[in-house]
Specification:
The chain is 33% helix and 21% strand. It has 12 helices and 20 strands. The structure holds guanosine-5'-diphosphate, 6-O-phosphoryl inosine monophosphate (IMO) and magnesium ion. The site of guanosine-5'-diphosphate has 22 residues, from α1 and β3.
Length: 421
């Protein structure tokens, strides 16, 4: 397994941080390739809990983290994150692609303003400037990491960009003024702090692959937040699917051997947009409380519901997932009955695919298969065979439906609460 990839198959927060940390022990490099500090990846080591937003989770295991060209970087957040880790005794080994786009102060302001403009139709973004930054990248008005190291090029770009942003500020009735000199100084200062990390990362990564080093890609968000294949427009603005790793790092797709899809044993979502299996009832409360389902980035409560296999199958197909890691199985402990969505009813017709039209998605009624629950999973369970019979039935059903082997079952946030199957 020279190059492998961990991605979320649902709406994010599947436990990617935990699983990436687990697999990092065998990796040389851990690479983030999309998203930005909208992500919140949690790693539990003994009593210590680390929540990383930008720095790849592998640094906790002492591995080199790479922030690929496909990531959008808020330098202020990154510098804080580096410093916070240092205070806690970890000096992260880190590289940042010179081509990564930079989240500017005006992106954050515009993210909030766009949401306000949308009123009830708002996306429920993390307000970290992700959407406006990716929009600028695609319309070729982005600032890239390399620009933070060159006063002249940054200044020239700001001369073109800022008047457009000022017009947008007028449209959105934003009072704040954009002071070019202040912005230039602030971002050149960030450049000074980050200078040693900014490199042509794609060259480093390809050299590593060619010399047989092990690479682990760390996806952020999940398939249903992918800008093409998710619940558009209630998505993020990047390609969260496996294909994004190639684009967001400069690695040819044929190099990737293993694609590990993380499936939370139920479903959660933060922000707006449809969630077909949502449970606004005692079940939802059980999942939220037992699962500690509050956003690692914004602290917002996560909406909770039953596992949706229409969603997970959609993810497996699009990303060519080769292995499944089930997480948070322990959260289902104590439920009498557990349901899994296997199809939708759309306008009285059964469908087994995820519709493109968001209004159709809103009309989809889940068709469930019922399972008997189990009381508890004994702490210290380290073998699949030792799981409760009903839990094994649940997992085997998932495996059979997806036609992809389950290779990991996670039964708690800590490293040793992981069963290799
Ligand atoms: P990510 O964004 O996919 O990395 O996931 P988050 O870190 O945002 O959210 C997952 C949460 O569940 C974190 O608080 C993890 O510590 C926790 N977690 C991960 N795996 C398990 C598990 O198997 N059981 C329980 N109870 N918690 C878990
Ligand atoms: P991790 O990597 C869960 C959601 C936001 C919002 C939508 C768009 O921790 O799984 P954005 O700020 O990206 O423009 O917001 O996407 N979202 C996430 N939800 N986990 C995440 O990351 C998310 N990153 C973005 O809540 O609905
Ligand atoms: Mg998260």
């Amino acid at each position: 397994m020279a190059v492998s990839l961990v991605i979320g198959t649902q709406w994010g927060d599947e436990g990617k941080g935990k699983v990436v940390d687990y697999f990092s022990k065998d990796a040389h490099y851990v690479i983030r390739y999309q998203g930005g500090n909208n992500a919140g990846h949690t790693i539990k080591v003994g009593k210590e809990i680390y929540t990383l937003h930008l720095i790849p989770s592998g640094v906790i295991q002492g591995k080199t983290g790479i922030i690929g060209n496909g990531v959008v970087v808020d330098p202020e957040v990154l510098i804080d994150e580096i410093n916070e880790l240092r205070i806690r005794g970890i000096t992260p080994k880190l590289l940042i692609s010179d081509r990564a786009n930079i989240i500017m102060s005006y992106h954050k302001i515009l993210d909030g303003a766009e949401e306000k403009y949308l009123k009830n139709a708002k996306i429920g973004t993390t307000k970290r400037g992700i959407g406006p930054c990716y929009s600028d990248k695609i319309s070729r008005k982005g600032i890239r990491a390399i620009d933070l190291l060159n006063k002249e090029s940054l200044s020239k770009k700001l001369d073109i960009i800022l008047p457009i942003k000022e017009k947008l500020f007028e449209i959105y009735k934003i009072d704040e003024k954009l002071d070019k000199n202040m912005i230039l100084k602030k971002y050149l200062d960030y450049g000074k702090s980050l200078r040693d990390y900014i490199v042509p990362a794609h060259i480093e990564i390809n050299k590593a692959i060619n010399s047989g080093k092990k690479i682990l890609f760390e996806g952020a968000q999940g398939t249903m937040l992918d800008v093409d294949f998710g619940t558009y427009p209630y998505t993020t603005s990047s390609h969260t699917i496996a294909g994004g790793s190639s684009i967001g790092s400069g690695v040819g797709p044929h190099h990737i051997n293993d694609i590990i899809g993380i499936v939370k044993a139920y479903t959660t979502r933060v922000g707006g947009g449809p969630l077909p299996t949502e449970q606004i009832n005692e079940i939802g409360k059980h999942l939220q409380t037992k699962g500690g389902e509050f956003g690692a980035t914004t602290g917002r409560p996560r909406r909770c519901g039953w596992l949706d296999l229409v969603v997970v199958k959609h993810s497996c197909m699009i990303s060519g997932i080769t292995k499944i890691a089930i997480t948070k199985l322990d959260v289902l402990n104590g439920l009498d009955k557990i349901k899994v969505c296997i199809k939708y009813d759309l306008n009285k017709k059964e469908i087994d695919y995820f519709p493109a039209n968001i209004d159709d998605v809103k009309k989809c009624r889940p068709i469930y298969k019922d399972f008997k629950g189990w009381k508890e999973i004994k702490s210290g369970t380290s073998k699949f065979e030792r799981l409760p019979e009903q839990a094994k039935k649940y997992l085997k059903f998932i495996e059979k439906e997806l036609k992809i082997p389950i290779s990991i079952v996670s039964i708690g946030p800590a490293r040793n609460e992981t069963i290799e199957v």
